[in-house]
Amino acid sequence: MGIVAGLDSSTGSTQIVVCDTDTGAVLRQGYAPHPPAPDGDPQAWLMSLGEAAAGGLLEGVQAIGVSAQQHGLLTLDAGGVLVRPALLGNDRRMQASAADLADALGGRAAWAQAVGCVPQAGQAVAKLRWLARNEPESAQRVAAVLQPHDWLVWQLLGRPARRTTDRGDASGTGLWSAADGSWRPDLVELALGRQAELPEVLAPAEPAGHTPEGLLISAGTGETMAAAFGLGVGVGDAMISLGASGSVCSVHPEALVDPSGTITSLADATGMHLPVVHTLNAVRTLRGTAELLGTDLAGLSELALRSNPGACGLVLLPYLEGERTPHLPHTAGTLTGLRRESMKPEHLARAAFEGMLCGLTDALDVLRGRGVQVRRVFLLGAAAELPAVRALAPALFGAQVVVVQPAQWAALGAARQAAWALGAAQGTRSPQQPPLWPTAAGQVFEPGEELAAGQAVRQQYATVREQTHPGAFAG
Fold this sequence. Notes:
With 475 residues, the protein is an alpha/beta fold. The protein has 15 helices and 24 strands. The relative contact order is 0.13.
């Protein structure tokens, strides 16, 4: 038996779990907040890490895995000093830069072919373009670029000359191709106007190095990849995250290059691939409807369950902020099917839940259309606890739904990676086979007898979507 730790530095806190290498059992946990900000001070992450690890939390630990927030850019000068505070999150200041870059390479299809994704405001490539255009003096000082997990690993190792990352986090930069397994320095120059050093991309079980105290530090990864690894998502599974916006991803053996740019072709933390499809409207659809009806999410769920499948003919296309899937950036939401008998609060509530879930099913179907098998869906986010989501999702998704128990899944994924790297280094585990820790526990919901009704609702929704936005999914 060994002991490892997983560290997750998210947007507002550091979570640490200490686990048994063989079983994945959590032995100890630590937590500390840090201030979230679009321009962040990485030193706050280190202070938070120290607070979370206080009281001997890491005593006996042999290896540490690091997960961290994605959509971050840290720029270093030739001496390894930060040029400016970190640029973090899906920063709207970078939207124009992302659109500018998309055109500069020849459009969405060219980017999808190059690196598996179209530039988005959160990606490092867009942040570099913004920096070059808005802070040219800072851009001229940039000698190397890292992401938050890369920087934390580098700090833990004592700031060595070698800087590293992993396939998963690299694939989210817009500068590395999951299909080819290589950086695109030409895209760094396209964005920044000059070259900059990129970190070495490690294999999943390859260690980044050892701390001055002798602790093994594994490759680390981004939060999405770490959470999937912690949950135990495998081939045949999808992971749907219900936030204000939504995301659908699934483990797949191959990179899915999508000329339309709908699929973001990421790598996972195991050597496989993690195609992701995003929607802009998930829980914001429910919150907006709840406000309209003068209730909260729990009240909206209760109302929805008083209605019947199909909401008495009421259909809500939930494109309140425009939409990414399908690609309708400048559209708005649409409510159709208004008749005297359908104009009741319970039917509008039901249409909101059905619209949100059908929008996510559209995203699932994009993956299915490319040969991705989806037999089980892990549903994450506080909205997954709503009775209406649990009642409607299995039949609309056409798959078993697991509503997972809240846990530090990204930290657990980082710990699992640390156990893998430790075992590979000791010769007790194959670099091709990660530890077989338990899959996420949760409540399981089957489509059952509601499947036919759910598919009828899907057809009703798809008909309205096609009439309102003909050809939205064409090509």
